Structures are given as C-alpha cells and as structure tokens.
Amino acid sequence: MVSDGNGDFIEVVDELNKNKQKKKPNVLKGLRCYLAGPIDAAQDDGVGWRNEVTKWLKKMKVSVLDPCNKPISYAAFKEIDDEKQKMMSLKASGRYFELSQRMGEIAHVDLRMTDISDFLIVYVNPNITMFGTIHELINSLNQKKPTLVVVEGGKKNAPNWLFGIMDFNFIFEDFEELHDFLKLIDTESIQANLSRWVFFENL
Q1: Domain locations in the chain?
Q2: CA distance 76 to 173
Q3: Rounded Cα distance, 138 and 36, in Å
Q4: Average pLDDT of the residues in 11-19
Q5: Rg for the chain (alpha carbons), in Å?
Q6: CA separation for the pair 49, 145 (Å, rounded)
Q7: What CATH number was assigned to the domain covering residues 27-186?
Q8: How confident is the model at residue 65 (pLDDT cuts 50, 70, 90)?
Q9: d(CA 108, CA 110)
Q10: CA distance linking residue 169 with residue 179, whole number of Å
C-alpha cells in the first residue's frame, strides 16, 4: 500500500519503469561486417556458420557482407555451389586462363567488401586449406579494423603466427564467445578498443 507521505516508494517504482523503457545502446547499428573464412575446401562452401552469424548480427542491425551471398546483382560468378564445382573442373582440366578470369572477379569483389567493412569476423580452421581468408585477415589488420577471429578448437589450436600479428584478446574459442563479446560492445557494457573500433556519429 502506497503512503501519502513523501512518496519515496512511488519514486522508486517510477525510476524502475523509466529504466525498463530506456533503450539499450546499439553502437553496432549501421556498421558493416565482412565474414571471412574458407570456401574452396569447406564441405558446405562455408555457408553454415555464416548463416548462423548473420542471424544475430542482423538483430544488432549490423549490415552483413557475405562472400557466399554477395550483395551485388551484377556479379557473374557466385563462388559457391555449381560455380565452385565449375572452377574446380577448370583447374583440373588445365583451363587456367578461364579460371583466372573467374577468380579475378571474385577476389576483386571479396577484397572490396573487406575494404569497406567496419569490422571482420574471421573463421580459421587449421585443418582446412585457406588462402583468400588469410589475405583478407592481413588486409583487415593492416587497415587497423577490429578483426575478430574464431579458431576451430580454440586459442590453443591457433597458428602461432597469429599471436604475433594481432591482439590475442580478439581470438575467440567459438562463435558463442564471440557473440557474447559483441553483445557487450553493442550495449557499451565494456569499453571498445578505440584504436580499432570507430563509431561515426551524425552521418
């Protein structure tokens, strides 16, 4: 029962209701994230993990740049499914000029998406042959972007070289740990490393 006195109880309830109504910060809103990881040697063309990560990035209102689902209508070569098999066939039959033409466009688009992204999520599986992924990883680090690496098997399974070229705090045990980290960044529950993260305002 509420007293007619100083109204302390009412003030507390009002403050709680205000806090419930307050929107949590969404500092990742509008940022662009590129999803780097093996495609050529991945059994599912690298589609599975990208689809799962895309779901929770979109909940944070992050724009996803996915090489398996390129966000341009005029790309002639899609890199996965039948197109990947076609390129494997070209290589097996020694038709390197045609392969070079196709892969030249794919590499151009994927590296451009790396360039325009605000941060990268990189999946590294030491058991899978990777080349483009490492190229994109190095480009991102050189551009001082937040480069968030998930290693299959966790940090203990990461290549030693990786510890020499990037902050080990940006290497994650699995996608769940990465998701938790991004939620903390998004809600400003932890301070983002501003030597990497850039949050533009009033654009």
Answers
A1: 27-186
A2: 36
A3: 11
A4: 57
A5: 22
A6: 21
A7: 3.40.50.450
A8: very high
A9: 6
A10: 14
Nearest to 121 by CA among 72, 182, 60, 71: 182
C-alpha span between 202 and 179 (Å, rounded): 27
Report how far residue 102's alpha carbon sits from residue 98's, in angstroms, rounded to the nearest whole number: 6
Residue range 31-47: average pLDDT? 92
- pTM of the predicted structure, to 2 decimals: 0.84
Residue reference for tokens 């203990």: 156
Reading the block at residue 50, the tokens are 């990208």
Structure tokens at 187: 């809600």
What b-and-e string marks burial along 159-183, b requiring 16 or more CB atoms within 10 Å of the CB?
eeebeeebeeebbbeeeeebbeebb
Percentage of the chain modeled with pLDDT above 70? 83
Q: Give the residue ranges of DSSP H helices in the chain.
A: 8-21, 47-59, 82-92, 96-116, 132-142, 160-165, 175-186
Chain centre distance of CA 109: 17
- Asked if residue 9 has pLDDT above 60, the reply is no
Query: Of 35, 38, 45, which is closest to residue 128 (Cα–Cα)?
Result: 38
Structural contact between residues 37 and 123, judged by C-beta atoms closer than 8 angstroms? yes
